[in-house]
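FORM 12-B: Structure-to-Sequence Request
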């Protein structure tokens, strides 16, 4: 069985002190929920504070929003996998659509970062998803297949056994427009099938695939009841502690 995984992608929000008061409320609201894996993904500047706060919290993990493909050296402004590991970061988001569209990250860049993440023993959350234009042109499967092939190139099944995929249709991110559960399920089933072709059946059956794009407490259950949806990558609604805890509880009801 795939354990469902809900991640809070805070993007460029939450100072250290804001993160701290978020956790006061969130951890209280979360209670002893253990059926769902929860990942908090703050900006780099709040990682150490959140890490400290989570150090004796079972089941809530720490993630980073990005990392360098390089190990160390003259790369001003970059952060390495080893630096993240030292802060007890377990997960790293790679290839988020904002990184792809605003910072020019191609599948080749995502692939280099993925190799670096695996080497640093970080668990990658690899994001893929089509734009509205691509959906309207009927290219969803073509786009997803190309992103998967490009992003996962050169890795073995063993190297990605801990990886998580996130299907985030670009048109649903921050727009309030969610994919319907059926649209999301269709994409997830296709992603799982493609992973099976690129690797093997065991890998595809085990691979957790999150949905992302305007996930809110009131649409979580319908999405999480789909057979190939194994969690969510939550942006906007993850900034509000009670809403995010509700999303986790709603997911637990579907686990
Ligand atoms: P959203 O963002 O929940 O605000 O749509 C999701 C994401 O970008 O990961």
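FORM 12-B RESPONSE
SEQUENCE OUT:
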């Amino acid at each position: 069985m795939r354990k469902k995984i809900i991640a809070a992608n805070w993007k460029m929000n939450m100072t250290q002190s804001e993160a701290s008061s978020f956790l006061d409320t969130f951890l209280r609201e979360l209670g002893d929920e253990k059926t769902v894996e929860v990942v908090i993904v703050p900006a780099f500047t709040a990682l150490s504070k959140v890490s400290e706060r989570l150090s004796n919290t079972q089941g809530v993990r720490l993630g980073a929003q990005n990392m360098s493909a390089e190990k160390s050296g003259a790369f001003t402004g970059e952060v390495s996998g080893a630096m993240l590991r030292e802060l007890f970061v377990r997960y790293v988001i790679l290839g988020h659509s904002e990184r792809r569209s605003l910072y020019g990250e191609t599948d080749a860049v995502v692939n280099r970062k993925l190799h670096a993440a695996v080497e640093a023993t970080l668990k990658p959350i690899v994001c893929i998803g089509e734009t509205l234009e691509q959906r309207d042109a009927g290219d969803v499967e073509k786009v997803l297949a190309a992103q998967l092939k490009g992003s996962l190139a050169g890795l073995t099944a063993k190297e990605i056994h801990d990886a998580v995929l996130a299907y985030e249709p670009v048109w649903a991110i921050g727009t309030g427009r969610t994919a319907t559960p059926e649209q999301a399920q269709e994409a997830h089933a296709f992603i799982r099938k493609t992973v099976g072709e690129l690797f093997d059946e065991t890998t595809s059956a085990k691979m957790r695939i999150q949905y992302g794009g305007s996930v809110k407490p009131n649409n979580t259950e319908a999405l999480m009841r789909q057979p190939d949806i194994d969690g969510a990558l939550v942006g906007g609604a993850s900034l509000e502690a009670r809403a995010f805890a509700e999303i986790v509880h709603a997911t637990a009801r579907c686990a």
